[in-house]
Amino acid sequence: MGSKERIQRLKEDTRLNILDAALQIVKEEGWQSLSMRKIADVIEYTAPIIYEYFTNKEGILLELTRKGYMLLGQDIQKAKSGHLLPEKQIEAMWVAYWDFAFQNKELYKLMFGVEMNCCELKKSLPEAEFTTGMFNDVISELIDEDKRTEELMCRKYYTYWSIVHGLISINLVQKGTNEAMNQHILSDAINGITRFINN
Fold first, then answer.
1. Which Gene3D superfamilies does the entry link to (predicted)?
2. In a structure prediction context, what are the per-residue pLDDT tens digits for the chain, which is 199 residues long?
């Protein structure tokens, strides 16, 4: 490895360390506690070094949001590929979405502004569009061809999402029901929407 490649590798490692430190602080203290100075303390650099990589805290939040959508997209893609029937795919995909939310609570809260005042992040990240696109592809397969319109597909996507996201938010913000009850509600909601998707 040449010196140019080594320097580039060190820069990328430092950038990743900054993001990892930010997430570590958030897991321990919450999003409101995140600051450039705290990140610098964790990675044992001076605050000006952080600004060489990210213009401000919003830049870090945007990159973490992008990372969250990438991880979510991978989980959903894996869930989809485990089934052939669209009905099974859509259920597995929403369950993967649910699992992601609770395995990555801090990222999920940032991505969707749950229980936090998030900065005005770009609404159309390619990573977010990729995830939505996967859901829409399967929803399209579930809708009869003669009834399939962009408006109907959009409406059905938001019907699924509002119920799943709403149930997740209830459980993230306050204690919801027990896990077994949550799984029943989730399954009933997904399967109910799927059953009547052409109505």
1. Tetracycline Repressor, domain 2 (1.10.357.10)
2. 578 888 888 889 999 999 999 999 999 998 889 999 999 999 998 888 899 999 999 999 999 999 999 999 999 999 999 999 999 999 999 999 999 999 999 999 999 876 555 444 445 688 999 999 999 999 999 999 999 999 999 999 999 999 999 999 988 887 667 888 999 999 999 999 999 998 7
Prediction pTM value: 0.88
Query: Tokens standing for 3?
Result: 């010196």
**Three-state SS at 148:** coil
Rg of the chain taking only CA atoms, in angstroms:
20
